[in-house]
Structure formats: structure tokens, C-alpha cells
Write a structure and sequence with these properties.
7-stranded mixed beta sheet, 4-stranded antiparallel beta sheet, 11 strands, 114 residues, mainly beta, globular
Length: 114
């Protein structure tokens, strides 16, 4: 599985960004997809995850109500809509897909200015 992330950038606090992750390869084995982030000096953390079978989602408490993860099966993409962004959302965001192993896309940087 290959993952290509896009959509990061610089935004002011309160603004919105949409990240997308395009999957290719053995995508039929993907059991779940997600977004993680890693801020400078911090560990990588789960932001949001969506299960392929059934579409159930889960979110980090810090983003609940502001971020929405979704998938487009026709386009083999998973997106993360981020609204009401805060400076503490600044991080490198990574998309992830799990089959029997975990696959990672390249990071995309999100910077939220105050």
C-alpha cells in the first residue's frame, strides 16, 4: 500500500484546512485508515481513525467536534476536514493505513498561527 498525503499549509487560528490521503496498491486489504500528527518535541499521536468495514470513527479528545474524517471509496482517498484550528494543532500530519501491517504516508505540515 502506498499513501500520498496532501493539503497541509499555513492558516490563521480559527481557520480550516482539508487534508487528503490517496491510497494505491493492495488497498482491498485496508482495515482502517487514520491520521496521526507529531508536533515538535512530542510523540506521534492519533488524531482520527475510520474503519473500512462499517465506517465507524474515533477521534482524539482534543479534536472532537472540530475535525471530521471521511473516506471516498471510489477515489480511494481518506480526508481530514479540520475546522476551528488552534495553534496547538500545529504539527506534521501523517496518514496511515492498516492491513496486516501499518503503512504510512509522507507527512504534510500544518501550521496554525495565532
Amino acid at each position: 500500500v502506498q499513501l500520498q498525503a496532501s493539503g497541509g499549509g499555513l492558516v490563521q487560528a480559527g481557520g480550516s484546512l482539508r487534508l487528503s490521503c490517496a491510497a494505491s496498491g493492495s488497498i482491498f486489504n485496508i482495515r482502517s485508515s487514520g491520521w496521526y500528527r507529531q508536533a515538535p518535541g512530542k510523540q506521534r499521536e492519533l488524531v482520527a481513525r475510520i474503519v473500512t468495514d462499517g465506517g465507524s470513527t474515533n477521534y482524539a479528545d482534543s479534536v472532537k467536534g472540530r475535525f471530521t474524517i471521511s473516506r471516498d471509496t471510489a477515489k480511494n482517498t481518506v480526508s481530514l476536514q479540520m475546522n476551528s484550528l488552534k495553534p496547538e494543532d500545529t504539527a506534521v500530519y501523517y496518514c496511515n493505513a492498516v492491513t496486516f501491517v501499518a503503512y504510512w504516508g509522507q507527512g504534510t505540515e500544518v501550521t496554525v498561527s495565532s
